[in-house]
Batch of 2 targets.
Target 1
Amino acid sequence: MDSIVETFAEFYFGHLNLAFSAWRNLADDIRQFCADDEDAFSALEEELGKEIGERNSSKNFPVSRIHKRKVAFWLQDLSVRPLKRPFSDWRLIPEDEVEPDYIFKTYGSGIVLLEENRDPIGQGTTGLISWQGALALTAWAEALGTDVLKDRRVLELGSGLGLFGINAVKCCSVKSFVFTDCHDKVLEFLRLNVDLNFAEPKRKSELCEILRNPNAQSAKPKEECRIQRLDWTDFNEEDLPSDIDVVVASDVVYAVALVPGLCAVIAALLGKGATAAFVACTKRNGDTIDTFLAKLKSIGLNVNVEYRRKFSVEETIMTNHEPLRPITLYKITN
Ligand SMILES: C[S@@+](CC[C@H](N)C(=O)[O-])C[C@H]1O[C@@H](n2cnc3c(N)ncnc32)[C@H](O)[C@@H]1O
């Protein structure tokens, strides 16, 4: 029963789309566990209700009402008896309620991010959702990159919502972490997400106020974290920090037009004393990665494959907006 409850909570707080086969697998597990015994189902239903009620996330980072409604109908399909509260209440949420633009997603490591709900390239940026490259970089950091990151001053290019960096600050003992991006909305959400994960838990009303007015943030930023605007296509080398040991990036190689700027900023940071850059690239269109590697070599940088990863559906359950593809982490040095 414990693993069913845990998986259910993960899908619920992670806003996992109900169309995903992972929910069908979970339904099969529940049917097998209950084996037509309605009392067993009632006991499970109670545990599910308790788990989601007890988690801090449910109070501080509300799950969208539409998702709750869909989950209640999914659960009802598994039982011949009417559901009890809170699931029975959720079934009453009106069907025509509009999906929110942004949702809180809880990741396996306990990180909560405010993310765009609908369009992976909404608001003219890819940076308002998290990508599988960030998970690959995290997996590498935890498995192999500990020595590379521990006590180091790290700078990330194209941080997006901060999934990798927040994890690195929480789990990898970095000395400092500079999140960077170029998009106003992404930077605003990045600040909010860093705050959400490191400041005192906020009440829902405070979060709503922050969303309406980003300047309303009052929490002190975490000491190790810095958030900075950095546009690869428009930067002055003198403005780049010269106190960086390691550069990281994930899923930033996706448009040929951005490659020259990205390579130039990596070269400049290595020139200013960083020992290496680690860039996780998801193979969507091989040409863009080939252009990136060729450009790095043409400006005299060395490139080696550091790590390869392909995730299963269960492992990337929280980043479910694109098919799973192989990811390669490149180590780039002078
Ligand atoms: C596909 S997202 C990846 C976000 C994050 N690294 C992840 O893996 O979840 C690409 C990121 O690069 C940023 N980006 C795109 N062009 C950029 C530029 N010229 N300078 C800096 N950041 C840029 C976008 O704003 C976005 O956050």
Target 2
Amino acid sequence: MKSAVPDDHAAEEAPLHTQPATAVPPVDGERPAPNANGNGADREPSTVVNLKEWIAAPAHKLPQVLSVENPDGGEKFTLAHCPFVPEHDGSCGPALVQTADGTIAFACSGPGCDGKRFRDLRDLVEPGWRGPVEVKASPEMAAAMAEVERVVGAHYPDRVDALKASLAVVAHNSFADHPQPISLVKIARAGAGKTMEVSWLLPDGPNDVLSESIYRVDNLTAASFVSHRADLDAQQLRNVDLLPQLKNKTMVTKEMAPLFAGKREQLTERVSILTSVLDGRGYISNSGAHGRRGYEEDINFSWIGCTTPLSADVLSVMAQLGPRMLFYFADRRRKDVDQLAAMIAKGDDTAAQRECREAVRDFLLLLHRAYPAGSVLGASIVTTEPQSRTIALWAEVLTRLRTEVPELAAAVAGLDTAAIGAEIKPEHAERVFWMLLDIARSSALIHGRDTLAEYDLGQVSHIALSSGVFARSVVFEALLRTPGGTATRPELQRLTEYASKGTVLSVMRELAALGLADFTEEEASNQPAMATLRPPFTELAAAPRLKAQT
Ligand SMILES: [Zn+2]
């Protein structure tokens, strides 16, 4: 049937290989090699490729172009050596040719290169060009991750999980089927070194190949996504706008605290911009100076940031505006005097940092070579039903832990469920569910796995607990550790290391108002005496956790 249909590529089927390769190389880009399969079924749309730009793309790392000629209205780029076999030097005539009709051919007369076509070259230097494929287990990726764990684990064992969470966020761009941007904000007290592992991700300036996938932004304001600066014209504005530059990249912001500072109204305005941007559908804004401007296209990206702990007020503004931001508690125990003194013996850690940075860099280069943006399908990573349920439970916990609890609801918690229902409005958990699932899948990808594992769910648990109001997360987590999910108020004080009875009491009320736990009252005082996790959240006691957090 197929052969009977007039073939619009028929002209290219004519044998063109009569001349030696050094003259006009075989035009083989869009058709089968004449002696290979000969069925014409595997054409590729190479006409959409501008060869000159394709060769110039730094990511393709092609051999140097020695000369450019224009045979028959086309363009021929002679390469210094063959990209497949570097020993095939100029005497083999390695070249790429784009004919006037756009068809691209590869030529090299070196041994083993006769059947090689442009598509084979794309497979070599441009993985992912054929469109998204299923994730396959990758021993190369697993080995690279093992190396990162070895190097970083030797110097900074308490940074490994936080680093791997960052790498998962970066890897999220590799998925073609991710519905929205992911943003993960590391939270730690001042001096905890939260920015250390984040700085290992950064490129060495704008010419570094890593800058194609990692975008460093140190001074971020909400207005910088789409600028309205009055002193710039339209073209200049396009150049300063942050949003279009982020597409398919990971933005790294080492200090986000200024974004979360200020009065509630300012914060609400800022967070509403972030919320739009984090929808991944572009952003349009209006100003007196420039009127309506912005980007209506889909702009998907990842975002890693760092900040000091956020107030409940900030969290409640963010929860009201939408669940686009996830958090990662990256604090560590304070060093005691002996540990501080021991630092002298260890000496300056510049060399250790450099080693970690190099290991992370090697990993990122492999990640982008193996899984360029949009090259794999996250949904192909095997997720069992119990794993999905665990992620769903964490999504539900996360949304409740950061929901605002008005005083009235806390006061009647445990007594009047209807009144609480009227007061408490947790966000819907679907979006958080998808984001947590995406992070779990990205975590699998960076470990070279094609299935979710306990470690990925451990990261999910840590993100869920980090994204809630801190005191609530700590008490909820303590309840997960107690037999039957039950603990008295003094036990909770001991388990959470909270000195304040008042804090634990109010958190017990809040958890009840949020539907995460119930409590019994002390008869004399009417104060919560004993808290018990409410089903189905009791199931999370058996859910995988990060080793460092348990
Ligand atoms: Zn060759």
